[in-house]
Design brief:
- By secondary structure, the chain is of the alpha+beta class.
- It has a single domain, classed as Alpha-Beta Plaits (2-Layer Sandwich), CATH 3.30.70.
- Helices cover 30% and strands 35% of the residues.
- It contains three helices and four strands, in the order E-H-E-E-H-E-H.
- Strands 2-3-1-4 form a four-stranded antiparallel sheet.
- The chain starts with a strand and ends in a 14-residue tail after the last helix.
């Protein structure tokens, strides 16, 4: 299983990002959680309500999912993390793979002539 996580500034942006990524089948599902963030930005401490979005995808979709999230993000310097894990329930992994429309690539074999 692969995951991609980011924060966005509004529920509307979170919804639009989720709809876009899932419509392209780059992820099978997403979680959206309202959070409070405190951070330094351009010399000032900022407090902001944000929405954390976590996508779950098949490993073969990870690079495309990260690229699409980065391309659609409105922040100048977005929080964007990703990774993979093999520690996942087999049934969930099968569902995730099927819903992401990802199939492992088989190595090409050369025909003997």
């Amino acid at each position: 299983m692969a995951w991609v996580e980011t924060n966005v500034g509004s529920a509307e942006e979170a919804g639009a990002l989720v709809d876009e990524i899932l419509a392209q089948r780059l992820a099978a599902c997403a979680n959206v959680i309202r959070i409070e963030s405190v951070y330094w930005w351009k010399g000032k401490m900022e407090h902001a309500a944000e929405f954390q979005v976590r996508f779950k995808a098949a490993p073969g979709q990870l690079k495309k999912c990260v690229g699409a999230v980065r391309a659609k993000h409105s922040y100048e310097t977005p929080y964007l993390t990703w990774g993979t894990t093999a520690d996942v329930d087999p049934g969930y992994a099968a569902w995730l793979t099927a819903e992401s429309r990802w199939q492992p690539q088989r190595p090409r074999t050369r025909r003997k002539t």
